[in-house]
Amino acid sequence: MTKATNKLKGGTYKVGFGKPPKEHQFKPGTSGNPNGRPKGAPSLDEIFAREAGRLIKLKQGDEVVHISKIEALVRKVLHKAIEGDMTAAKLVFQMRGQAASADAPDTELELELGLDEDVVKRMLARFRFEPSK
């Protein structure tokens, strides 16, 4: 079986797998995806940051407060940790460590645990839980 040849400009060019005929190849300066990714399309990090910063309504006692989604998430994890959820407790300490090591002082999310941290530590001591080193 012989491979087909394409004769252009006096030369021979073997046509086969990965070698389309010259008239069907992309011309110089053009790509296979001329429209490409739209300019200004948000990245996953940008989408996450935008969604995490959006405000939600949260009922606190008799009043409704507006807080960001990320703040609501942190509150929920802290609440679960205080109730005795060990997975949430580990996550609290991981978040605290990341917040302490972050070099960006202008971040919107700052975890101020204060007395809550002592409560979590006492709870962990009561359950004889030692954070992994």
Provide a short characterization of the protein structure.
This is DUF5681 domain-containing protein. With 133 residues, the chain is an alpha+beta fold.
Overview of this protein structure:
The chain contains 4 helices and 4 strands. It is α+β, with helices and mostly antiparallel strands. It has a domain at 86-133. Strand 1 and strand 2 form a beta hairpin. Helix 2 packs across helix 3 (86-101). The protein is elongated. Residues 22-95 form the DUF5681 domain.
Annotation keywords:
133 residues; alpha+beta; two-stranded antiparallel ribbon; 4 helices; 4 strands; elongated
What is the strand content?
15-25%
Low-confidence blocks of residues: 106-111
Give the rounded overall mean pLDDT. Answer: 77
Number of helices: 4
Would you spell out the secondary-structure blueprint of this structure?
Elements (H helix, E strand, L loop, with lengths): L4 E4 L2 E4 L29 H10 L1 E6 L2 E6 H14 L3 H16 L13 H12 L7
Antiparallel strand pairs: 1-2, 3-4
Helix pairs in contact: 2-3
